[in-house]
């Protein structure tokens, strides 16, 4: 099922909706990963393998099912390579936005040791790593500030075996994963363990980092771009240091993200975590059009991959 079809089923109610209805982004971030994990476990009984596209369709349709009219999905006429979907958080009043380019991978579990389960297509195609290169190479040319991410989908029995330290949906920095893919492509024979969940787990952070970052009590359901961007940057920076691979946002990111580091190479103060050149100074016309047509929910557009837009309320005097 395509993302557009999944969203259409959810919106029109023609038959059983594939996406459950969540009360808020925080509710979705809390409950959907476990549902995805259970869904992936079903394939053991069906004797078939669910592709990443199937899980991504559920995720997109679930976002579209959020109450209100603050979610718009732009659908492409033809899918192209480089990322499975884009997720944009936008605040129209301040014209601020942040975009996440997401590439999805699903786990092939190991029969006995959950840590040696592998994301076998991580260096797709044919262990060349071209897909990961495409994911990160274009973000600096985007009209919106863009952070590349991987979404890793994991079945429930693996989550249980991990002691629930792994969930059904885990996110990781696209820059960090790219560095590991580059190392795998270079080494022959391929003996590096970077496709294994046990090796990549130190980079994981939850879906709630984007959909439910820390914010004031009583704030609107959709978080502000500044809140989301700061939470994701902090998650990447912290996990980059813990993973022991020696890569950080300052080293890996395009020039506009390198300014997150201070002159001594250290992390800027929290209040400076979103420098001015990382803000969207003016929203692109394609985003403005989506906001204007938000009541339609699903909008065909000249995009290379499905784009989910979450529209946040803000006060321009406070930004």
TrEMBL record:
- Protein name as it appears in the record: DUF6615 family protein
**Would you say which domain of life the source belongs to?**
Bacteria
Q: Where is this region: Disordered?
A: 256-275
**Originating organism:** Sphingomonas agrestis
